[in-house]
Design a protein that fits this description.
Helices cover 79% and strands 0% of the residues. The protein is mainly α and 235 residues long. Helix 2 packs across helix 4.
Length: 235
């Protein structure tokens, strides 16, 4: 009798987890269709976005942070346009603040989601072969250093990293510090560029974006080299 009860409980747990994954997938698709597309279009019209923010009053920053959370959870929505329009609409410092707060909340949500559902949550947005290049993060040795470094390094796929960190043994308190501090350089360059666009300083904006593209490209090359080197060392 005890074995039957234990087996039934296990089936119930699997059914709950499976149902949760399906619901999350359905909600993600709906979010992409009904919120993601308009959000991207909004980000492509910064003057309209600034006007919309002004109309919302105190709700403007909160609604914007909600957009950032959605962008991170629904990982296929690009985040860079939102960071640029944040600088355009709020200014460099305030825009950076709202981006950081929204990103912090979104990454905490993803971390807890993956801790609850495991790789099944990652499969919603990323093929599992993406995990192979980052399997060295499963090694506890210098885990905190590598997670911080990869999030600090410009050009790295932070949305993918955000999901993968949840299946590592990184403590929640360490993730809170990393997700609050490490993304600052990549966010602030985008908001400074957006602020320059809003002020009509197009030459400075072009300079900022040009430097950002170069640094991000170098960061992406470094990221790929690190992944290859760490993968060879793990085999």
């Amino acid at each position: 009798m005890r074995e039957q009860h234990r087996s039934l409980t296990l089936r119930q747990k699997r059914w709950i987890v499976g149902t949760g994954i399906v619901l999350f997938l359905v909600l993600s698709v709906l979010a992409c269709w009904f919120a993601g597309r308009p959000l991207i279009q909004f980000a492509q019209e910064p003057e309209r976005f600034r006007s919309w923010v002004d109309q919302q009053g105190l709700w403007g920053p909160l609604l914007f942070m909600g957009m950032i959370v959605l962008q991170i959870v629904v990982a296929i929505i690009p985040g860079e346009p939102l960071e640029i329009v944040a600088g355009y609409a709020f200014g460099a410092l305030e825009g950076t603040l709202w981006c950081l707060l929204g990103a912090f909340a979104g990454r905490l949500a993803v971390f807890l989601l993956v801790r609850r559902f495991g790789t099944r949550a990652i499969e919603v947005f990323f093929p599992l072969d993406k995990l192979q290049s980052l399997r060295f993060l499963q090694n506890e040795r210098r885990l905190t250093f590598w997670v911080f470094f990869l999030f600090f390094l410009p050009g790295t796929p932070k949305d993918l990293l955000c999901y993968i960190v949840g299946i590592t043994k990184l403590p929640l308190r360490s993730w809170l510090v990393i997700s609050a501090v490490a993304p600052i350089p990549s966010i602030i360059t985008s908001t400074i560029g957006g602020d320059a666009l809003g002020m009509g300083n197009y030459a400075f904006a072009a300079l900022v974006f040009g430097i950002t593209i170069v640094i991000s490209s170098l960061g992406l090359l470094a990221y790929r080299a690190i992944c290859r080197a760490r993968e060879r060392s793990e085999t």
